Write the structure tokens for this entry.
Amino acid sequence: MSKVYHATHVGKVRNNNEDALIYIEPETFVVADGMGGAAAGEIASRMLVETVEDFLPSVPRPWHEDILQKSILKANAAILRTARSNENYRGMGTTATILHLYDGRAYYAHVGDSRLYRLRNNQLEQITEDHSYVEELVRRGTLTPEEARVHPLKNLLTQAVGVIEEISVDTASFSVADGDIYLLCTDGLTNMISDKTIAEILSNSSSPVEELIDAALDNGGHDNISAIVIVV
Ligand code: CA
């Protein structure tokens, strides 16, 4: 059985928390980072996690990546419908990153710039690719990762859930190894601390989520911060 730690923090600058996370026991994890004016971001991320939480348990496990993808597409339709029916919610959307562990395999589905990381043999690897404008430029070699971190357009997403009808969900599965540590988090964490700091905390801490959030707060806490850590 894995050990699970999770928390979300409003940060030091914002008044509301647009992140949402859920832990569907025993081994399914979701983070969502909402966006949109007024309270709309909160609505979008909450609708995402509620739709996923309603849908997945209605299907037999394991929840393969196509099932995880379907849960995100359902949320996409629901959020879009709500956004179109209410002026105040127009343009709202959310990221979605889902990890399901079952019988030695990991399945994931992902849209946006929240992230899934894996620490294995002391090596931290970012499993998901950010659907963001600056990350596209990094992949093309136009920007360095360091330039991307401080780029004025770093919040611009190329894909989000609930904004348009056709979205393309990244999915994959892979084998889990004993001792793997997984991290799901929002950009309020990764914009504040480096991968090196994340790796150090995951390798050494007995309360990793608390330490990750404290480190992000110490570095400014400009955004809502959410993290789920799973120690296999
Ligand atoms: Ca955020």
Q: What stands out?
A: The chain is about 30% helix and 30% strand. The radius of gyration is 17 Å. The mean pLDDT is 95.
